[in-house]
Amino acid sequence: MTALAPPRIEVDGLDMIFDAYVVQRDISMTVHQGEIFVIMGGSGCGKSTLLRHMIGLLTPVKGAIRYDGDNLCTAVGRDRNSLTRRFGVLFQSGALWSSMTLAENVALPIRTYTSLTEPEIEELVALKLALVGLRGFEDYMPAEISGGMRKRAGLARAIALDPDILFFDEPSAGLDPISSKRLDDLILELRDSLGATVVIVTHELASIFAIADNSIFLDAETRTPIAHGPPKALLETCPEPQVQAFLRRGAVKR
């Protein structure tokens, strides 16, 4: 990824408001092809809400979310489906179906959206699980594996259809530092191998400094973004006390 990479995602003047409650106003940001872009801020600032707007689960009161120039907020029917089919999403809990094996979880989107034969699906599922370090765990149930392994299984499902944009909501939540580091390394490997653009919601400082190319800071008090840029650059130059307090709370650079 370089500074000359083309814009992949553009958020322009987004307002997130529910009834009379303002979550955030006037969010504008650009995510370039191949970037790992972090949405950060304190609890309750609207990080996950912004991600849900970006994947089309919520509709903004105002503003636009464009993917390669196409506005998700106004797209309908097949145009909207063609946009969202490009997304792979890893939710905070992993969101695996507890009654399905890992292989069945990963196979679900492939069966739903492709016409591949069963042998082809089985081969692809085995490949996706191998990519996240879960070769040989195809027949395990989610309850039979660790939290870190469930996150990796959720990631295998997120990349099942070879998306070019990946969204992660607090991927390291609930993981020990070693598992969190392994997941960060896996995200970097997948970004490089798939050529994907990655948007991550997180408050984990180690992950932010380890993998983020760029970021936006959402402020809960003013309910607006107050900083944009690479986290390490913000740590050195951003004058906003809220940003400095967030980035200096025992920051560990890996």
TrEMBL record:
Pfam families: ABC_tran. SUPFAM superfamilies: P-loop containing nucleoside triphosphate hydrolases. InterPro entries: AAA+_ATPase, ABC_transporter-like_ATP-bd, ABC_transporter-like_CS, P-loop_NTPase. Keywords: ATP-binding, Nucleotide-binding, Transport. Residues 9-245 form the ABC transporter domain. SMART domains: AAA. One of its GO terms (molecular function) is ATP hydrolysis activity. This is Polyamine ABC transporter ATP-binding protein. It comes from Elstera litoralis.
